[in-house]
Specification:
The protein is mainly β. The chain is 11% helix and 28% strand. Among the domains are: 171 residues, Immunoglobulins (Immunoglobulin-like, Sandwich); 53 residues, Pancreatic trypsin inhibitor Kunitz domain (Factor Xa Inhibitor), CATH 4.10.410; 120 residues, OB fold (Dihydrolipoamide Acetyltransferase, E2P), CATH 2.40.50.120. The chain has a six-stranded mixed β-sheet with strand order 7-15-14-19-20-11, with no helix packed on it. A hairpin with a 5-residue loop joins β3 and β4. It is found in: Secreted.
């Protein structure tokens, strides 16, 4: 019978649960980016890394090291080289096993008795035509059979989703995964809390230690940190931990992610182990036997019915003693031009994990440095990178909301850069940060609050039919992010449908995200005027030198069934061909 897999408290993702029936089958993409794993089995080796999902393909004998002995898990993740998709990509004596990079690598197979028996090569099971009914579950192969498994990987692009359980999720994927973990069904609802936050006022001095101050117990209070997040350095082989202490009502749920340059982040939940990383039942993240690959930015996400908070905790893993003087020190200021250069990932010497400044994101990230030394945009620690390319101060409006440990309560305002709004909170009176304002007006003056200007409505170059015929592409997509420049910008969309595409091959290459260049933009009154809250949009534009572009008169309108159906009818009737003949 079909079996389903879910995560339970204290257990890793990948455990069997009751059959679910029919639902959606996980989409497998070849040639695209691989998703980063989020859950692993803790007690039993149930998922055979490297199983093929295609009918007629075979697997190599033996198992991955961590399947034979959980203590050998690090051995199976010890390399990010020799990437593979299935056992057939490896030597006959090897298995294709999950590595720490979120991909798979060829690793020598293990056997229970130390031998290598000649196991018969049997065709692997397939997820084709196998469906899962539980929300947030996908088909996977377990013990040679298709099973339903809770989602354990989610996109890192924000698309805040308010759910029927009263919580705000980072995007819909997170909501679906939570529904599967609970064995229930969640639906999206209009957001009522994140845009109208509760009024707060000081509480009596008799309040007990570390309360959630503010309105009555029935009023939700958004998460706020007790202390500022900070950078830590640890020597290779050492142990380090991060605590994400937050207030809020109801008590916020805590998850951790390791930031990466990949499409999706590595998500970790409380009371579970992920290789040499453990998240305790109180939400503390602990890293044992730290390796260079563990260096990076660990992000704590705290959410409840009133809102969402994310805080970054950078970690550097160094070979020298933490706190010692860096090997390279110079009284000369670091050239700012070096910070704008792309990191050199070529391999000339031994590879090590270093930090580089990412000019597009305006932050320091890790990468694998090969020692070629073509530029200076590589640093041993996060702090060295920040000092060289950002200075000591972090932009006020990017800092998280910090309540502080003291109890001298007073109402304050802070800017939430995720929601792009100023919100009220109660400040404890000490150990806060500069994202702390006495009034909403002051907060909005300092931070980029979207002021309501008297802007004229955007004028289209032409109506739907002419716009469709003159455009190189027409898509239905959700706006994920906008990056502003002086008179241009970049808009990133999650594609939901491709209505027309003459030059980019969006359907052929199964493209899920599209980056569009915005030209001739006036950011005080932008046209096209788009926000992430608009929902699905119909976007029509042109392609220049392989780049999708929009100008102020491009067709951008809210997507609805009537408009999408109309475009499909126009395409089926080849209206544009007839129109071009008539014009000729």
């Amino acid at each position: 019978l079909p079996r389903a897999v879910a995560s339970e408290p204290g257990r890793g993702a990948g455990w069997p649960m009751a059959p679910r029936g029919s639902g959606a089958v996980r989409e497998r993409r070849s040639g695209g980016r691989q998703r980063s794993p989020v859950g692993i089995a803790l007690l039993l080796p149930v998922l055979a890394a490297g199983l093929s999902l295609q009918t007629g393909r075979t697997r190599h004998p033996g198992v991955c090291p961590n399947q034979l002995n959980p203590n050998l898990w690090v051995d199976a993740q010890s390399t990010c080289e020799r990437e593979c998709q299935a056992d057939q990509d490896c030597e006959d004596f090897e298995k294709c096993c999950t590595n720490v990079c979120g991909l798979r690598s060829c690793v020598a197979a293990r056997f229970a008795d130390g031998s290598a028996p000649a196991l018969a090569l049997t065709p692997a099971a397939s997820c084709e035509s196998f469906v899962c009914a539980q929300q947030g579950s996908d088909c996977d192969i377990w013990d040679g059979q298709p099973v339903c498994k809770c989602k354990d990987r989610c996109e890192k692009e924000p698309n805040f989703t308010c759910a029927s359980d009263g919580l705000t999720y980072y995007n819909k994927c997170y909501m679906d995964a939570e529904a599967c973990l609970r064995g229930t069904r969640l639906t999206t609802v209009p957001c009522k809390h994140i845009f109208t936050w509760p009024d707060t006022s000081p509480v009596p001095q008799e309040t007990t230690a570390r309360p959630t101050p503010g309105a009555g117990p029935e009023v939700p209070v958004p998460p706020a940190l007790y202390t500022n997040p900070f950078h830590q350095s640890v020597r290779a082989g050492g142990t380090v931990s991060f605590r994400c202490d937050v207030s809020g009502r109801p008590r916020p749920d805590i998850t951790w992610e390791k930031q990466s340059e990949r499409e999706e982040n590595f998500i970790m939940r409380p009371d579970q182990m992920y290789g040499n990383v453990v998240v305790t039942n109180i939400g503390q993240l602990v890293i044992y036997n730290a390796r260079q690959e563990d260096a990076g930015i660990y992000t704590c996400t705290a959410r409840n019915a009133a809102g969402l908070l994310r805080a970054d905790f950078p970690l550097s893993v160094v070979r020298r003693e933490p706190g010692a003087t860096p090997r390279e020190s110079s009284p000369q200021p670091f050239p700012s031009a070096e910070c704008l250069k792309e990191p050199d990932r070529r391999r000339c010497e031994a590879v090590e994990v270093r930090w580089h400044f990412n000019a597009k994101q305006g932050s320091c990230l890790t990468f694998r440095y090969g020692g070629c030394g073509t530029n200076r945009n590589h640093f041993e620690t996060y702090e060295e990178c920040r000092a060289a390319c950002l200075g000591s101060a972090r932009p006020t409006c990017l800092l998280p909301m910090v309540q502080g440990p003291c109890q001298n309560w007073e109402p304050r305002w802070a800017y939430n850069h995720l929601l792009k709004q100023c919100h009220s909170f109660v400040y404890g009176g000490c150990e806060g940060n500069t994202n702390n304002f006495e009034s909403k007006e002051t907060c909005e003056d300092v931070c980029p609050f979207p002021k309501s200007l008297q802007c004229k409505a955007c004028r289209l170059k032409s109506k739907m039919v002419l716009s469709l015929c003159r455009s190189d592409f027409a898509i239905v997509g959700r706006l994920m992010e906008i990056v502003e420049d002086q008179d241009s910008g970049i808009a990133r969309f999650a594609l939901e449908d491709v209505l027309k595409d003459e030059k980019m091959g969006l359907k052929f290459f199964n493209i899920k995200y599209l980056e569009v260049t915005l030209t001739d933009m006036d950011w005080s009154c932008p046209c096209p005027n788009m926000t992430a809250e608009d929902g699905p949009l119909i976007i029509m534009g042109e392609v220049h030198d392989g780049m999708a572009t929009l100008d102020p008169s491009s067709y951008v309108r809210a997507a609805n069934d009537k408009r999408v159906k109309k475009i499909y009818e126009l395409m089926e009737k080849k209206t544009c061909d007839l129109l071009n003949r008539f014009q000729d």
